[in-house]
Amino acid sequence: MSSIERDVVIVGAGASGLTAATELKKAGLTVAVLEARDRVGGRLWTDDVDGATLEIGGQWVSPDQDALIDTLADLGLETYERYREGRNIYISPSGERRTFEGEIFPVPPKTEHEIVSLIDKLDALVAEIDPDRPWEHPLAEELDEISFRRWLETQTDDEEARLNIGMFIAGAMLTKPAHAFSALQALLMAASAGSFSNLVDADFILDKRVKGGLQQVPLLLADRLGDDVHLNAPVRTLRWDEAGVTAIADGVEVKARFAILALPPVLISRISYEPPLPRRQQQLHQHLSMGFVIKVHAVYETPFWREDGYSGTAFSPYELVHEAYDNCYDGDPRGTLVGFVSDEAADAVFRLSAEERKARILESLSHYYGEKALSPVVYYESDWGSEEWTRGAYAASFDMGGLARYGADLRTPVGPIHFSCSDMAGKGYQHVDGAIRVGRETAAAIIGAA
Length: 450
Fold this sequence. Notes:
single chain, FAD/NAD(P)-binding domain, globular, Flavin_amine_oxidase, oxidoreductase activity, Amino_oxidase, oxidoreductase
């Protein structure tokens, strides 16, 4: 085992850890980045699957994601717009396929009124939430003691309206059932994007993609860091005191003045600490868990839905695939659809064989796009729940009552140990933008203390 000394050791070579390392190095500090995987990027992963370039992890860029946009410019990366021309598709409770334009689904007038009313109510509440300190809201504890599903039930008796609004937070973002997280956690998710309206606007939240794939951000950051990035080096033990840390990983030991744990909170307890982390940290990590979603990629000979006048955007809380989009890769003449199966629905299909699961998912896509959707030339499921160094998707969130109780301590340093990842962000929470923001903030705190 090699032994090296650095000013800061960073555990995790995702966007947050690599951003922090970059900022620290700019300030003249020495760094070592230890990554458990055989690649950099964490939950960003662009890969070739059977000849198709797929974004297995995160992929979209929103107009308000300043930190990410600045990083893309710094790295010389270009973007292209998601295809969105034509009619969108909605499946009703009866299974009827309806088309629409704009943001509001083609639902009965009463349901449409209730959906608009719920969006207005949520936007008003979100405007009162500081995404960096949601626990400071006067009603934080009250909002954290009621599930998002129950909160919606107190606002309207229209089930279709509740299911559609719940889908944008539960299925599309936190990837947990709406009964499993609080109204406060839902408000944080919306506040992190600027408003609830932004979350329901697919043209906003899923605006652009990066040419060459979003994983280029960590890949290019790692290139700049060179030999300071160590792959296949999972950290097993972290010894620490007020004077510094010693990170013991497979094949390398790093002694440093500071450590940054830039990994999902659910992995923090995978490391053995000498001495153990304080009681508060031990407790709060037990109240965080990852969501679960299958990201489905289906590649066809042509983007046949475009020829029929459809955008590729499709939604339904009644379908196995609750949302899907045109996801054609820049320069590829073939057509790619991406769909999502979340939380309990994902649990159910993983009880099936791979062949049965594929058939069920493609059948759901065919309800939106017709029989042509049944026959992709490439099919792939991104299953982050089985990834050893992730354990779920898209991000960690607190259980009921956990955000108000523990949120303020989520990023509180423990001696020389700091914490940094998208799961801990305010603005940009669970997005690459948030990972970069927190990475910059964590680096700045260490630079100030060094």
